[in-house]
Specification:
The chain is of the alpha/beta class and 125 residues long. Helix content is 50%, strand content 19%. The chain has a 5-stranded parallel sheet with strand order 2-1-3-4-5, sandwiched between helices. Helix 3 links the parallel strand 3 and strand 4 (78-82). 29% of the residues are buried.
Amino acid sequence: MPDSVLLIDDEKHIRFYISLLLKNIGIPAVYEATNGEEGIESFKTNKPDFVMLDINMPGDSGIEVLKKIMEIDEDAIVVMLTAVNSMHIVEDCAKIGATNYILKDTPEDVLSNNIREIISECFED
């Protein structure tokens, strides 16, 4: 189980909702950033076990932020968050280094299970 997650999303209600889910799963530290610049700084400072990153944000897009994170740490575990099921964008993110993606409008129980599955795949033998 990871000790920390960095959640980068410009929407306050999404950060609140996903942060609550992560804490309910048992992750003790959830760092939040409202944009790409804050997210990169938090990634450097807090060195989270994994990142949940919104694809569509003002300023640097999630794809640009993903590229910067992968430049800092090519082994970073980054899960993309999207409201749009656009496979070409998801494929682009995977080519850059994203581990997985989650649709934001997924029902709570399914979203929680998806996060647990990703954690299991990435952190447990």
